[in-house]
Structure formats: C-alpha cells, structure tokens
Design goal:
alpha+beta, 2 domains, 15-stranded antiparallel beta sheet, eight-stranded antiparallel beta sheet, 11 helices, endoplasmic reticulum, PH-like_dom_sf, lipid-binding
C-alpha cells in the first residue's frame, strides 16, 4: 500500500507524532488453490464515536459493523439490520491511522474520510453506575453514627521536618504526633475491607465460575473505596500482640486480627462466615519521594468459597499519597491485581488500577478496569468504573452495576472521613467489654483519647505505650526469647511463602473459659 504522508498530515495536523499509519491492510481471503473458496472472518460490531462537521458539529455515537472488509455504520444496530445505512467503506482502499493515546482511528479513502473514536469505558460505566441503586441498602444497625469529638486540625504539625529527618527510613517505625492519626489502627483497617462482604456472599451463590470471578474482583476493588476520603490522617501502628475482633451478626461474619510481628510490622487476620473464609497477613513498605509517599503492601489475600471449593488469592496494589506536605494532599491506587483460583484453572482475573495522568484532556481519576479470562486467554467478562464510585459489568446477560459504595454519613469530613462501617469499628458497646481480651484495640487508651478529642493526653500516653513496648522487647532479648503470637501461627503456603494462619483458639477461649480467666499480655 502506498501512503501519501501529505494526506495524513491534513487528516490530523496536530500531535502528528502520536499517530501511527497502519500499513498493509489487505487480507488474503482465499483458501487453498481455489480463489472462489472464501473463508469468512468473524463480524466485528459495536458503538464508536464518529465526528461530524455539518450539521451538529462534534462527536456522535454510531453503530459500526465490519464484515468481509466492508465497514458500514448507522445510528443503531436496528438500523443496520433494516438496511438503513448512513455510509459504508471498503477499508482495503483506505489509509488507516491510529492514535493509541486518544483512542482515535482515521480512515481516508480519498473522497471519503471517517474520523472515529473509541468511547471511554469509564464514562459509560460511570453513567450506568450513577443510575444504579446502592449495592446494599444501609440498615439501621443501632450503632453510633458519629464520634464523640471532631477530628483535630493538623495543619500546624511540622510534617515536612518529620519526613525529611527520616528519609530512607521505614516510616512504619517512626513515631508521629497524635494529631496526624485517626482513632483506629491498621488491624482495624484490615477489617474495613469486609465492609462489602455481601459480594462474597453473592459469589458463593453464583453457579457460573466466570460470573463468580467478577464478584470476587469487585470485592477486591471495594476494599479501596474508603481511602478516597481518608488522605488527611494515618491509622495507629498496632502494638506487638495487640488484637481486634469484629463480630457482625448483621453481615454474618466474625473477624479476628493480631499484630504478630513488630520488625518488620506484620498484621494477620482471619474472617469466616457460612459463605466464605478470608485470611491475609500484610506488611507494608514505604517510599518517600519528597512530595509523595508510596505505600506498598506485600501480603496476599486469600478467600475460599465452601459451596464450590474455590480458593482465590490475589495481591494488592500501590497506594500513593500525593502532595503529602500540603493540606491539598490526595490519594490514588495504581498497579495490577491478579486473581487466581488455586483449585481450578477455569479462569483468572486481571484488574488494573489506572495511574492518573496529569496532562491532556482525560482528567478522570480513580479508574479501574477488570477482565475475566478463560484458560486460552480469551476475555469472557469485562468490568470497570471508578474505585470510589462503583463497578459496572456490561458482559453479563443483563448488564448491571455489580457494586456501588454506600453513601458517606452526614458531616463525614468532621469525623476523619469515616464511613458508617468505620465509625462502628472502635465503638465499645454495652456488654462487649467483659468479653474482650485486654489486648483488644478498643481498650487501647491513647487511641480512645484521640477519639474523645484529648489530643495532648493522647500524645503523652502514646509515648508511654511505645516505651513499654520497647522495654518488653529488651526483656525478651535478654532472655534470648522472641514474642510468640497468641492466636496465629506461622506456616508456609503452596508457593513457599511464609504466611500467618489462625490457630483456631480465639473464639474457643472467648466462649470458655473467657478471657477474664486466662493469662493476658499487659500492653498498656
């Protein structure tokens, strides 16, 4: 094919370097020696945006069908079926150029010129999600809907000096002023990932393995949603041996977590219900880049579904806090999540958290795209949207919003950006205290002081608690001993990784003889 460069320049004079001319569009449609023995390729069809000059100048949605080298289009699929065409083009006679950055295609056949653009899946998902009801209608749980005090102002805290004094250090070991904290800690934050556990309930009752994987993918995404509102404060670092339980009869699960290691910091958790079991141990690495802070979790999330014997596992993506030294800081996630079913090779799932672009016309942030692939690598389902707004799947028999976060509570900004679920995490309800071990996070005094608005008292007690932890570590070192977690045990998984698994004793001790009748660590 001979390409006239001057034609291409006239077709798209701006950003010429972003355009690529596709050579040799001819397709050999003959089979064997008989030129009449034609093989018919598959039909490609769907909606694209096509640019018009007159009338109604701009981009308009049109339905295109490509069959045996002929591209036809009309306003709708029904118009194509009825033969009401707006135009057609033999692409073998056209020069094709593409712009991958802007998802644009130009076809130039001399007297006919098509300017086309792929519509953004995110925009379509977003429009669909905005019309969808919430995935779960929020229930009145009878629990608190606010905190005892508003979050403190922390603009005065010299964060710049703290960070620059600790460049190159593991920031998880650096003690921060209480005004930078929120009144929950990392093992409670892991419990937040179960806010939308109903997605796992649905998965366990979904017969089709490909659709089941979509719901597992949606659950993996849902755990990031709350971070959109939580860029001003950091969770407390749990003390070694600190525990947290969450028994949610309304959601049908129970959860236990423990800080099992201090250097490096490792938090382990386990949750179970009639429909699923979930466990993970997470350790975090931090990188401070001067204006941004990257948080890289290195653990693996595991979920089993008893009805089908499935065992899914997946990694987590990078979380980055931008403008970390400014009050205009914001947070994003980026990277790839790969979900595998260890007990079946029927399908895998790939989820991409798209890194924001800070230039160009596409200003959409928090975009996430997912695909479910069969054994051959063919795409069975596509889903996506924005991780803080919802996820839509248009490849189900009935396209639908499969997850949408619950609305934030009133005045959430005054309460650390907490969701209703997060507001309940540290609540000490009547009758619960006698059932908890004294190592439970709800009983941690400095964290409770911050929740009550006593920031100065929190700072003082936080320092005392950390000193007590250092002293316990020194005493163990003198004896040549190491801390032994109470409710989790170290093991090796099928991939040879060190993992922390529940030893199954927490709920047994809670019931009989009760933690008040057992030997407990004194952490504070």
């Amino acid at each position: 094919m001979v390409v006239d460069v001057s034609v291409m320049v006239l077709s798209h004079p701006q950003n010429i370097k972003d355009w690529e001319v596709m050579d040799d569009l001819q397709v050999d449609v003959t089979s064997g020696d008989n030129p009449q023995d034609l093989t018919i390729p598959g039909i490609c069809e769907g909606y694209l945006l096509k640019r018009r000059k007159w009338p109604l100048k701009g981009w308009h949605k049109r339905y295109f069908v490509l069959e045996t080298g002929i591209l036809r289009y009309s306003k709708t699929q029904q118009d194509i079926t009825r033969g009401k065409l707006h135009g057609s083009l033999d692409i073998s006679l056209a020069v094709m150029s593409i712009n991958k950055k802007s998802n644009r295609i130009n076809l130039d056949a001399g007297d006919i010129l098509y300017h086309m653009k792929v519509p953004s899946a995110t925009r379509e998902y977003r429009a669909s999600i905005s019309k969808a009801p919430n995935s779960v209608v929020p229930m009145n749980t009878g629990r608190r809907t606010t905190l005892p005090a508003h979050c403190p102002e922390n603009a005065h805290v010299g964060l710049m000096q703290i960070l620059y004094n600790n460049i190159g250090k593991d920031l998880s070991r650096v003690s921060m002023p209480a005004a930078l904290n929120e009144p929950i800690n990392l093992i409670q934050r892991l419990c937040e990932e179960l806010e939308y556990s109903e997605l796992l309930d649905i998965a366990n009752n979904t017969q089709d393995p490909y659709q089941r994987m979509v719901y597992i993918g949606a659950f993996a995404i849902s755990g990031y949603a709350t971070a959109h509102y939580r860029n001003r404060y950091k969770p407390f670092n749990p003390l070694l041996g600190e525990t947290y339980e969450c028994l949610r009869e309304d959601k049908g699960f129970r959860y236990i977590s423990e800080q099992v290691c201090h250097h490096p910091p490792i938090s382990a958790c386990h949750a179970d219900s009639d429909n699923f079991s979930l466990w993970q141990d997470q350790r975090w690495k931090n990188k401070f880049w001067g204006k941004s802070l990257e948080i890289m979790p290195t653990g693996i999330v595991n979920v089993t579904l008893p009805r089908f014997g499935d065992h899914y596992e997946w990694n987590k993506v990078v979380t980055c806090v931008h403008n970390v030294l400014s009050q205009q800081r914001y947070l994003e996630h980026y990277g790839e999540v790969i979900i595998r079913n260890l007990n079946s090779n029927a399908c895998t799932c790939k989820i991409t958290f798209v890194k924001s672009r800070y230039w160009g016309s596409d200003t959409i942030k928090n975009e996430v795209q997912g695909t479910v692939l069969d054994q051959t690598g063919s795409v069975i389902h596509r889903f996506g949207g924005l991780w803080h707004e919802g996820i839509f799947c248009d490849t189900f028999p009935t396209p639908q919003c499969i997850w949408k976060p619950n609305p934030q509570p009133k005045d959430y900004y005054l309460y650390y950006g907490f969701s209703n679920f997060a507001l309940e995490l540290n609540e000490l309800t009547p009758g619960l205290k006698p059932l908890l071990p004294p190592t439970d996070s709800r009983l941690r005094p400095d964290q409770r002081m911050l929740e009550d608005g006593r920031v100065d008292d929190c700072d003082k007690f936080k320092e005392e608690v950390e000193d007590m932890q250092r002293e316990r570590r020194k005493q163990l070192a003198k004896k040549g001993q190491e801390h032994k977690p109470r409710f989790f045990k170290k093991a090796v998984d099928s991939s040879g990784r060190d993992v922390w698994l529940t030893n199954g004793t927490y709920w047994k001790f809670r019931e009989n003889p009760g933690f008040a009748n057992t030997n407990n660590l004194e952490l504070w």
